[in-house]
Specification:
The complex is a heterodimer of chains A (about 180) and B (about 110).
Chain A lengths: L4 H47 L4 H22 L5 H22 L4 H20 L4 H20 L4 H21 L2
Helix pairs in contact in A: 1-2, 1-6, 2-3, 4-5, 4-6, 5-6
Chain B lengths: L7 H4 L1 H11 L7 E2 H8 L3 H13 L3 E8 L2 E8 L1 H19 L5 H4 L2
Antiparallel strand pairs in B: 1-3, 2-3
The chains are: A mainly alpha (about 180), B alpha+beta (about 110).
Chain lengths: ~180, ~110
């Protein structure tokens, strides 16, 4: 079997392209269940916040605790980051978000309700910049829809986030899974 | 096989793509046949034949079971397969070391 340098170069290009595609799809498969999970949880949380604002804080506390636990379980089952590292990542994001809210002291529920999705969207966009275009577009979508709802529909913003934010994440997760 | 020889089993285009795809996954992580077929844009028959060749060489392991009621075929690259693939890639790179390649062949 004789392989010319030209042929070797083409074969290596093929290897590189296949490797990139494999890694890209692996990331999509890993991320999809998290997005679908949080899409459902956002929808639930924002509906509670809209219809029962007095129960909102406790509801979100339960949702975040339950969501993070499910995230860690999914990550471990899917051989993603080790449990400890993934938990550390969630804690870092959580502490950053809570600290930012405490320091900025928002004066309306809509501000908090918009801030967290924007952080999440920024994470997806950042990850998407590493050759994961579907994740990038999902992040841009969540970011844009959050801003539209915040400025255009302040009276129903929480409901907007339940339907459009939660729905957007769920659809994004399904889109990733189908890649 | 030595480092100075190409791996004739792996070098065939579809098998090279199969091995590159599998090698990019974490160790011992399988990929479903249907998913691999989608990634490679191959037909069932074509992909099945090439996987059979790789399995016969000991480069992949094929596991058939049921997910619920649906039959499922999953493919995992073996340790021997990873080594053979890496050796083949090293061999290909070695060919380029002293060669001048037209620019179009190396652009992604």
């Amino acid at each position: 079997m004789t392989i010319t340098p030209q042929h070797a170069a083409e074969a290596l290009q093929l290897v590189e392209a296949s490797k990139r595609r494999s890694i890209e799809l692996r990331h999509y498969q890993s991320t999809a269940p998290h997005l679908m999970l949080w899409g459902a949880l956002w929808a639930l949380g924002y509906v509670v916040s809209y219809f029962a604002p007095a129960a909102s804080n406790w509801a979100w506390l339960a949702i975040v605790a339950g969501g993070w636990s499910a995230d860690v379980l999914i990550a471990r089952k899917d051989h993603q980051l080790t449990g400890k590292r993934f938990f550390g990542l969630l804690m870092t994001l959580g502490l950053f978000t809570v600290s930012s809210i405490v320091i900025m002291a928002p004066h309306s529920p809509n501000q908090v309700a918009a801030f967290i999705p924007i952080i999440v969207a920024a994470c997806y966009v950042s990850a998407g910049l590493f050759e994961l275009p579907r994740l990038l577009l999902t992040g841009v979508g969540v970011f844009g829809l959050t801003l539209i709802g915040y400025f255009a529909f302040p009276g129903i913003f929480l409901l907007w986030m339940a339907v459009v934010g939660g729905g957007g994440l769920t659809l994004g997760g399904m889109w990733l899974r189908q890649a | 096989m030595t480092m100075n020889a190409p791996d004739e089993i792996i070098h065939q285009t579809t098998r090279l793509r199969i091995m590159a795809t599998l090698n990019a996954l974490p160790v011992a992580e399988p990929i479903e046949f249907t998913r691999l077929r989608g990634i490679l844009n191959a037909t069932d028959g074509n992909l099945g034949t090439h996987i059979g060749t790789l399995e016969a060489a000991g480069y992949v392991h094929v596991d058939k079971d049921f997910a619920g009621r649906k039959p499922r075929t999953r493919i995992t690259v073996t340790g021997k397969g990873r080594k053979a693939f890496e050796h083949h890639v090293v061999y290909l790179r070695g060919l380029l070391d002293d060669a001048v390649i037209p620019e179009t062949a190396t652009k992604p």
